[in-house]
């Protein structure tokens, strides 16, 4: 089959690789109809991870069940499904508590809990930017979708970024009526803004400097704050008459930069501590890694981010972090899509064939104007 394969820094190729096979009775094989390029894929693409050459990429996958193992009894061949990016066993201590992103059994890598398709350090699993994908513990992991092709661009967001944005809001402790500031108007930040609106925020601000992304935030009912035109903390304080916001969501990650483009991994965390009111909450879904060889400070290279912890403590704020447990939210989010209340597919900017993936990676990585969310359609 054809697949997107990691070849080295800023180098992916579409190549012939062996078809996946059933390796355990609880596996299924899914024929991929849509698979997305994610901001998280860029960490690997930019050579900031230890991902091995030859890995098939792609953790945002949906499709149709092609084959099931002898131990699969809920899923059936022909079912349309979306796959959470987390690969989870469903029965360990963390999975049974709803923390599928910290599954204790799916990742054999020393010191790592939780696994994903096609990702560095997240277990030996190939990704779904390919014609077919092996899905472990398929009865547990796959979420059924209505048959047909309706809502394809919305449902594909259930594999990662819609539940991840929702999780950022959940971690912030948001209550109806709260004011929320989301940092980052990439796909994850936009989904956090959409989620906060759906959950009854009184006002949502989204901070970024990319005009096309800020315009999308406004489409979801949020107020855009352009950090290239002035200090975002001052802008948010002015907009809230000096009170600050109740909740903040971090959807940028360790590659946070200032308006000139220089990276400061602590910048957004500092901004959030300043702008969230005392006793408010901060949800961090932007990724911070134990080691970032590409960082511009020695501390950040070791994964030590020297943010304003003193002020965080003094203000009695709380902070939640980590990979999103997609399964915990995605049935409800699917139903919000089916009833027309949620429209996450609004952020899709490009729908490409698998063969066009190389170009898609390059342009998405360059943050070319209008390249917000890129979908690949292996069957086309
Ligand atoms: P992205 O790179 O497309 O978006 C990040 C955005 O942040 C960009 O638009 C950039 O302009 C903006 N930004 C940079 N510096 C900023 C600053 N100082 N202030 C405000 N905005 C700033 O990425 P994405 O796909 O939206 O993902 C965002 C983060 O979420 C990444 O770190 C990704 O790895 C992570 N992620 C986490 C999970 C999870 O489960 N926790 C899942 C998916 C993605
Ligand atoms: Zn993703
Ligand atoms: Zn588990």
TrEMBL record:
- Any one Gene Ontology molecular-function term assigned to this protein's record: zinc ion binding
| Residues of the Enoyl reductase (ER) domain | 8-376
List the PROSITE patterns. ADH_ZINC
Give UniProt keywords alphabetically: Metal-binding, NAD, Oxidoreductase, Zinc
Q: Which cofactor does it need?
A: Zn(2+)
Domain of life of the organism encoding this protein? Bacteria
Signal peptide per UniProt: none
SMART domains referenced in this protein's UniProt entry, alphabetically:
PKS_ER
InterPro entries in the record: ADH-like_C, ADH-like_N, ADH_Zn_CS, ER, GroES-like_sf, NAD(P)-bd_dom_sf
Please tell me whether the keyword Metal-binding is annotated for this protein: yes
Q: Which family does it belong to?
A: Belongs to the zinc-containing alcohol dehydrogenase family.
Q: What is this protein called?
A: Glutathione-independent formaldehyde dehydrogenase
């Amino acid at each position: 089959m054809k697949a997107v394969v990691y070849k080295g820094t800023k180098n992916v190729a579409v190549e012939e690789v062996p078809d996946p096979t059933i390796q355990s009775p609880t596996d299924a094989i899914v024929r991929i109809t849509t698979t997305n390029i994610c901001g998280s894929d860029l960490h690997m693409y930019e050579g900031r991870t230890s991902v091995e050459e030859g890995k098939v990429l792609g953790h945002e996958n949906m499709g149709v069940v092609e084959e099931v193992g002898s131990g699969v009894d809920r899923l059936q061949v022909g079912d349309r499904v979306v796959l959470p990016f987390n690969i989870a066993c469903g029965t360990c201590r963390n999975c049974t508590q709803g923390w599928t992103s910290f599954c204790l059994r799916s990742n054999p890598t020393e010191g790592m809990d939780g696994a994903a398709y096609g990702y560095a350090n997240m277990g030996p699993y190939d990704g779904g930017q390919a014609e077919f994908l092996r899905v472990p513990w398929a009865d547990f992991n796959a979420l059924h979708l209505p048959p047909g092709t309706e809502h394809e661009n919305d449902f594909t967001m259930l594999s990662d970024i819609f539940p991840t944005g929702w999780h950022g809001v959940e971690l912030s402790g948001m209550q109806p009526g709260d004011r929320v500031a989301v940092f980052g108007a990439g796909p994850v930040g936009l989904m956090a803004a959409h989620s906060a609106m759906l959950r009854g925020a009184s006002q949502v601000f989204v901070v970024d400097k990319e005009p096309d992304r800020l315009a999308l935030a406004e489409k979801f009912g949020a107020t855009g704050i352009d950090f290239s035109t002035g200090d975002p903390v001052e802008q948010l304080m002015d907009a809230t008459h000096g009170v600050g916001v109740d909740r903040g969501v971090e959807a940028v990650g360790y590659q946070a930069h200032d308006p000139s483009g220089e990276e400061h991994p602590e910048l957004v965390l500092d901004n959030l501590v300043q702008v969230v009111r005392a006793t408010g909450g901060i949800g961090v879904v932007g990724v911070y890694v134990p080691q970032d060889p590409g960082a511009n400070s020695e501390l950040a290279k070791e994964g030590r981010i020297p943010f304003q912890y003193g002020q965080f403590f003094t203000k009695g704020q709380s902070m939640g972090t980590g990979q999103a447990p997609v399964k915990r939210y995605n049935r409800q989010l699917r139903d919000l899509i089916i009833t027309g209340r949620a429209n996450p597919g609004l952020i899709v900017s490009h729908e490409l064939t698998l063969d066009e993936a190389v170009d898609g990676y390059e342009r998405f990585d360059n943050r070319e104007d209008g390249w917000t969310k890129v979908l690949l359609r292996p069957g086309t």
